[in-house]
Amino acid sequence: MPLLVNEIFYSIQGESSFAGRPCVFVRLTGCNLRCTYCDTRYAYVEGCQMGVDEILHRVASFECPLVEVTGGEPLLQDDTPFLITSLLDKGLIVLLETNGSMDIDRADERCIRIVDIKCPSSGEQESFLSDNLGRLTDMDELKFVIGNRQDYEFARKILGSIQRGRPSPVRVNISNVFPGMDAGTLAEWILEDHLDVRLNVQLHKVIWGTEKRGV
Ligand code: SF4
After folding, report:
1. Per-domain residue ranges for the chain?
2. Which pTM value belongs to this model?
3. What is the CATH number of domain 3-208?
């Protein structure tokens, strides 16, 4: 079955522990959530059908070892797990960026799953599938996008229950809503509380701004 693909492009990875590395992005069409700050609304419906072989060929043309399957919500499409396995079988490092509302174990265990936990200001606070916490491996990463102090406290509470004063079992990324939440303020909160997290400033937006697509 073909997949509905919104765009495939080569850019600098802006988030996660891979931030700063060149990366090929395969953005799949469709999302089951409607976050208030969503910057990829164009991916809700726009897209064209592509077979897995065609996607692999396109990805290979960029000659890059790192690829991210993203959306929208990539796990909405039935053939996304097959695409991920096919990319891994080509020897690529595969990141799966998912909004946390779908079973992450559908994806090949060799891929690195970057799992969002939606905070209150997203308007999708109830969307997280709590069973996903038990499915995380030490390769995976969590992500919180913070829009205000309430979001920060929400994330801190969840991290407190996961970490219990020990180093986090998974890498945790905290991003500021951009524009809207000042990264400096967020940095101060993290330092005051000695949180064991990675502050992500969404590097691609710092470099290219918020309007440009395909970066
Ligand atoms: S999950 Fe991602 S793509 Fe979907 S609405 Fe939220 S920010 Fe947008």
Report:
1. 3-208
2. 0.93
3. 3.20.20.70
